Amino acid sequence: MHAIILSIGDELVLGQTVDTNSAWLGERLATRGIPVRYHHTLADDRDIIAEAIRHAADRAELVLITGGLGPTDDDLTRQALADAMNVQLVEDAASVEAVESHFTRRGREMPERNRVQALHPVGSTIIENHNGTAPGITATLGNATIHVMPGVPREMRAMFRDLIEPTLTPDAGQRHVILTTKLNTFGAGESTIADMLGPLMDRQRNPKVGTTVSDGIVSIRLRAEFPTTDEAEQQLDDTLAQVHEKLGALAFGREDQTLANAVVELLTKRGQRLVTAESCTGGLISKMLTDVGGSSMAYVGGWVTYSNLMKMEQLDVAKDDLDTHGAVSETVARAMAEGALRHVRPADVSLAVTGIAGPDGGTPDKPVGTVWLAMARREERQPDTFHTRTLLLALSGDRDAVRDRAAKSALQLLRLDLMDQPWDLIQWAK
Amino acid sequence: MHAIILSIGDELVLGQTVDTNSAWLGERLATRGIPVRYHHTLADDRDIIAEAIRHAADRAELVLITGGLGPTDDDLTRQALADAMNVQLVEDAASVEAVESHFTRRGREMPERNRVQALHPVGSTIIENHNGTAPGITATLGNATIHVMPGVPREMRAMFRDLIEPTLTPDAGQRHVILTTKLNTFGAGESTIADMLGPLMDRQRNPKVGTTVSDGIVSIRLRAEFPTTDEAEQQLDDTLAQVHEKLGALAFGREDQTLANAVVELLTKRGQRLVTAESCTGGLISKMLTDVGGSSMAYVGGWVTYSNLMKMEQLDVAKDDLDTHGAVSETVARAMAEGALRHVRPADVSLAVTGIAGPDGGTPDKPVGTVWLAMARREERQPDTFHTRTLLLALSGDRDAVRDRAAKSALQLLRLDLMDQPWDLIQWAK
């Protein structure tokens, strides 16, 4: 069985909205072993949609359509489907009631124009929508089964998962299960990672190993295509283990796990508490840490000392040091980290960041992207004595990129430290 | 002239990557008055690509193709284009040199497999790539002009902007210029905004007015379609003025402007300086403010008091108040805002946030989404006296949503205050 995905909407074709439905459906189908031939994104044009439906029904046994089911004149998917099937539209009484009750529950009367949402081609069946007013449609054309779903991602996903996916049974004979997974790394560039992986990245290999980069995170994507789920899982795990071995501590998590997740987990496990002092990252490290639910076990809080005044008054950074070395210096990073730890007695460890994020403020000596990190740790038996390490980063990119990489580098350093791994894994340390 | 856009790549069809190239190209073409018939996303399959190229060339005078120009066996767009044109591939000597020098500049030798990137169908011409190794191709098939570009967004965008867009000349006679713009609001839901806009949102209207929501920001999208650029601009401006009038101070900016942009601009203009004290938002307000380049003129810094300890020790919140009212209370929000202002003498105004972001920590009295905001302002002639206002929010959604809306509400409140506008525009105030 093959599938084709159609997305309908002027806003998609005009580029006002990026189509995420097709990618989501493509991934769901792949994991069920149903390969997708193509995606097709169409304007709200009845003839063009009808032609695309006929074209798709000729080339695949499964056609998934999203969008164009709203109540307005621009919503033409119903009519186009009827045209492609060469039949008329009829009203579904149960659907009228369902749309009516959707409005009644919200204390409103159904606008007359919503009645059009109960229309469907003769010979097709209605798919209930539990999350909105637009019911879906299931129809047959030639050898193809066609499912039409609303374009609103939340409604589409629920309808597909609950009512359409369970009906899909790929032919047992030619079934190819495709399983994918993702391992995330931070601290080295894509080409360094590729060198480390070597022959594992051979294009002919199955499972296939590839890399993608997003905001400095290099993700290793694994894709296993095998006749059975068991075999695909087994092979995926095996390749994942090999990838892990090559990358060591650079890899911090699977799928959607973030560096902050990994750090909060490690701190919690060791019963340690962190405090932060941020200048150029301006709260980004705090934000990343507190994105993690339950982070208050591991994270006490911190300062955003975006001005010299706050560095001096709140963290006891010496005016002399600021004058002599500048706010972006090893001395000041160290003083910020130690000041934070001194002020919060129950904290065990602190992170401090000071740097030049740009676009202005760079000098020949300290260009944009110059960032000093410091990590201070309270000595066990001498709570007023700190063991402090610093690292100078030379980051590239715009303001957002410098801030993002600086914050992630700080989290990765702390993580490496907690795992007794060397800091020099971080490639952009100077 | 009409256009069709094809995107090539297994990763797109499988949903591992969301296709953003098509939306970007669709928007560029729309602003030049070239309507797009459809986007087509295709797997790395030579026959399917060739068929789609023929299909597109039959239906549009302009076909834009991205992807499938890399050096590996999976990259089949060149061959498929030659198939569609019914010709052979030839090597372009200048391109071999260009690819070679791309590697030489990086101190590496050209891998032999990159030579394939200099191939192009007989009768087509090469488009230079100044940002990567894959040259583009311009070809003619029937009445259609076809441009093939690399799939890497950065390379594709540069090639299109610099070398392809200047060659596009829509037929003067039937030209329809489509101009779009976006006005951003925060503080009311989409349906409230729709009610305020009323007949301006009529679907038949030109310029057309629609709304989209993203992370609590309701954006009003305007789309003007007219024979000339002048007329489209004039009409767009006129409708924008009407929209502005209906929405008043809820609207904070155009296009990509953020609430933080608007706040930093207002503070800078009035010569005022802000300090923050964040609990549940955990640095998100700081992060948003310091996302803005040059924000240090207006933003001094702040505290992330993620623990009661930090609230007490750094902001002088009374232990009694925490015990009696809880950390999420009007009293504590007020104490945080005033404590921040007391500690930073040069600051004129402070924002404080304390709330329950979830997923845990909610109670029947204070469910997840309960957030107290406070804003303190230093009295002009009495620097130790503060004028403080508070607001209780009842937010819905998950942890990310509660934190995001709380931070944006705080920024919008400050903005309204700076503009002498009433706070009750914020719809989710309790």
From TrEMBL, chains A, B:
Pfam families: CinA, CinA_KH, MoCF_biosynth. It comes from the Bacteria. Residues 4-170 form the MoaB/Mog domain. SUPFAM superfamilies: CinA-like (SSF142433), Molybdenum cofactor biosynthesis proteins (SSF53218). Belongs to the CinA family. HAMAP family: CinA_B. This is CinA-like protein.
